[in-house]
Design brief:
It is a single chain. The protein contains three helices and no strands. It is mostly helical. InterPro entries: YjiS-like (IPR009506).
């Protein structure tokens, strides 16, 4: 039972990760700059959104 729950949680986190990456990549460079985000930071920010900070 715990293994199934763990798999479901990981799937939900991957959905959050992909959605965050997709949304941030859709922004223009100027929009990202206004938010203080560079394109190189998108993956890390998406990871933090899905799994929390390291």
């Amino acid at each position: 039972m715990a293994a199934i729950q763990h798999m479901q949680e990981n799937r939900a986190r991957r959905v959050i990760y992909r959605q965050t990456v997709r949304e941030l990549n859709a922004l223009t460079n100027r929009d990202l700059a206004d938010l203080g985000i560079s394109r190189a930071m998108i993956s890390r920010l998406a990871h933090e959104a899905a799994w929390g900070t390291k």
